[in-house]
Amino acid sequence: MTDTLLKSSVDTGILQLTLNRPEKKNALTGEMYQALTDALHEAAQDDAVRVVVLRGAGEDFSAGNDIHDFVVAINDPEKIRIPLGFLQTLSTFPKPIIAAVSGVAIGIGTSLLLHCDLVYADSSARFQLPFTRMGLVPEGGTSLLLPGALGHRKAFELLVLGEPFGADVAEQVGLINACLDSTRLIDFAMEKARSLAAMGPDAVRQSKAMMKQYDENKLQSVLVSEVDAFAARLNSEEARAAFMAFLQKPKANRD
């Protein structure tokens, strides 16, 4: 089952990881988080892998955490800690990670991009951090990284108002490196991956480590505190009402 939810392939030093649940807009389940975590652990130890490219199957990157998993986690809070393991692994991954984003990137589908080294999107990309709209709080390190990168007011707009925004805004605020035509997105991301894979791997890894070392301990602490707050919010009346309202919507209106 896991193999069908996350596709992986390695060629010339590039590991492609494809979220493969297109019928659900690649919404992430506990099983998918674990598969991603395992794949990244293996890639970190595999000298044949120099770069990782992360993408979604079909027309979307990821609609974020599967809401049904949130509902289950209300009665089993430990389940909400499964994404934490993935985020800790992603944020400390020693090799370059490139994300190629099309369609929706919602919730953790957006926040995980903050832990990637290069992010490219096409004009169809639509980002959103709707945590407070769901009665929840920021996760994925966003409460630390976004204010640090954008300042309080812009970060508040994205994290607390939680309105959708397009690739043009994402590029303006530095969430993505470039917005490309949909016909060029994957080829462009792979071109950059090949460039990185051709470089000296030790120099690339050391450069990445130096760029991230200043805030690393603080980030890991924030990831844990965010999950603690998130887990507590799952049992709130606001969150329960938001989940039920979402699940009662017609499927076509759930974005």
Automatic annotation (TrEMBL):
Chief localization: other
Matches recorded under CDD domains: crotonase-like
The enzyme's E.C. designation: 4.2.1.17
Enzyme class: lyase
Subcellular localization: Peroxisome
Domain of life: Bacteria
GO molecular function (one): delta(3)-delta(2)-enoyl-CoA isomerase activity
Protein name according to UniProt: Enoyl-CoA hydratase
Organism expressing this protein natively: Nitrincola lacisaponensis
